[in-house]
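Colleagues,

For the teaching module next term, I've prepared a clean inverse folding example: a structure given as tokens, and then the sequence designed for it. I'd like students to try predicting residues themselves before seeing the answer, so please don't circulate the second half yet.
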């Protein structure tokens, strides 16, 4: 058993995949259903502009709308005069599409919450069990603040990623595929022009996420030192008051807190520059 654990720690990729599989154990069906809901939400969100284009170009202007080829064949079979006299029908379609999209978005957020909260609970249980079985020598070489941070802040970061960003990444990929398919079927030249900035965004994203990891590490270490100072003062408050070291401890806390603020501000500033530049592009 000891040899098996050692091999797992030596093989970083296997160890990470093992942790991921263990964290998401029992939630595979939710992930699959979440994928279907994301595809449905993105697909229905593209129907509204197509209906508006159909009404303006075909029903009102009597022109062939800019749509994918398979939809144009369906549009040509529509009774334009009837729709022109009953313009409420396309309006009702837009309302229904919006309602369906809203249901898909609700399901996506609900599934994300179920997966993230369940995975967070599982991680906390595993962490607590793991800490209870660690040898005494381990606690001699690590501060209590680091342990508290691993069990609180780091788990919360993972929970936020699963809750907010995991299905959002999937949604972005599905949106790119569907939007490019629709644009290419309408006009491949305009699709190439509109997607010419994608390589630049991919390069920017790669450089950003490669460099941001070190800043996150520095911020986490500073937060760990801050948690250690707080934990030591809370557990030793009687000793501090007995020896009249309140001012010294306040100055110590302010110093560590200033360091944490400084590194975290740099982290947030870097993220703000990246997201601002990507939104402009």
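(Answer key — instructors only)
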């Amino acid at each position: 058993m000891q040899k098996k654990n050692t091999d797992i720690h030596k093989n970083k990729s296997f160890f990470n995949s093992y942790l991921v599989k263990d964290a998401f154990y029992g939630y595979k069906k939710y992930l699959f259903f979440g994928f279907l809901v994301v595809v449905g939400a993105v697909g229905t969100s593209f129907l509204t502009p197509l209906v508006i284009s159909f009404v303006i170009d075909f029903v009102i202007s009597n022109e062939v709308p800019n749509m994918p080829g398979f939809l144009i064949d369906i549009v040509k079979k529509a009774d334009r005069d009837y729709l022109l006299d009953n313009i409420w029908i396309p309006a009702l379609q837009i309302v229904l599409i919006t309602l369906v999209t809203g249901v898909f978005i609700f399901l996506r957020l609900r599934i994300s919450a179920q997966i993230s909260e369940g995975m967070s609970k599982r991680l906390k249980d595993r962490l607590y069990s793991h800490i209870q079985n660690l040898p005494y020598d381990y606690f001699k070489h690590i501060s209590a603040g680091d342990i508290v941070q691993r069990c609180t802040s780091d788990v919360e970061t993972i929970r936020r990623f699963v809750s907010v960003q995991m299905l959002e990444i999937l949604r972005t990929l599905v949106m790119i595929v569907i939007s490019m398919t629709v644009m290419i079927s309408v006009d491949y030249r305009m699709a190439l022009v509109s997607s010419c900035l994608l390589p630049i965004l991919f390069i920017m994203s790669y450089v950003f996420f490669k460099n941001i990891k070190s800043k996150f590490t520095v911020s986490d270490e500073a937060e760990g030192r801050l948690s250690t100072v707080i934990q030591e003062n809370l557990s030793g408050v009687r000793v501090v008051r007995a020896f009249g070291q309140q001012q010294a401890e306040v100055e110590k806390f302010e110093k560590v807190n200033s360091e944490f603020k400084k590194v975290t501000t740099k982290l947030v500033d870097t993220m703000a520059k990246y997201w601002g530049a990507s939104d402009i592009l």
